[in-house]
């Protein structure tokens, strides 16, 4: 397989896994603002939504881990093929920072509150913009 094809494949894996990881925030936000306020007559929707949300939350760490390892592979292939871009390096650094903040919060701090979480979430949105700039 050509390096260009592999580069695209691992870029796509990175984007998909990051999208799954960031769904964690959006699913909780939608639940808090809308789903939890639905009446008893919409209980079926609430039950289905919560099942989907539970799957997303459960796989957040896995999706983030896949994203960081695939972006590192993407970088390695790009570096080997002499196809490094500044926007890609910036996006990869944001992703690595987000990953290490997640590791800090989940395994060192062991609390899901505090400034680290706000920075973790905020950087995820900055990463969205960085990925868009890199791809375009």
Describe the protein's architecture and organization:
This protein is mostly helical. It has one domain. The protein is 83% helix and 0% strand. It is built from five helices and no strands. It has helices at residues 3-33, 43-58, 60-80, 86-109, 115-135. Helix 3 (60-80) packs antiparallel against helix 4. The model has no long low-confidence stretch (mean pLDDT 95).
Shape: elongated
C-alpha Rg (nearest Å): 17 Å
**SS elements, strand count:** 0
The structure class reads: mainly alpha
The helix/strand series, from N terminus to C terminus, equals: HHHHH
The termini sit apart by: 24 Å
How many helix segments? 5
The overall number of domains is 1
Q: Approximately how much helix is present in the residues?
A: over 70%
Oligomer: single chain
**Low-confidence runs:** none
- Averaging pLDDT over every residue, what do you get? 95
Relative strand content: under 5%
State the major sheet. none
């Amino acid at each position: 397989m050509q390096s260009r094809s592999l580069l695209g494949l691992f870029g796509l894996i990175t984007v998909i896994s990051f999208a799954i990881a960031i769904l964690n925030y959006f699913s909780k936000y939608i639940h808090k603002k809308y789903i939890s306020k639905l009446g008893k007559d919409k209980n079926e929707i609430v039950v289905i939504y919560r099942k989907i949300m539970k799957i997303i939350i459960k796989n957040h760490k896995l999706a983030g881990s896949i994203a960081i390892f695939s972006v590192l592979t993407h970088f390695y292939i790009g570096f080997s093929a002499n196809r490094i871009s500044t926007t890609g390096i910036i996006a990869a650094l944001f992703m690595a920072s987000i990953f290490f903040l997640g590791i800090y919060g989940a395994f060192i701090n062991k609390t899901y509150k505090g400034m680290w979480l706000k920075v973790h979430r905020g950087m995820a949105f900055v990463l969205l913009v960085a990925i868009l700039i890199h791809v375009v």
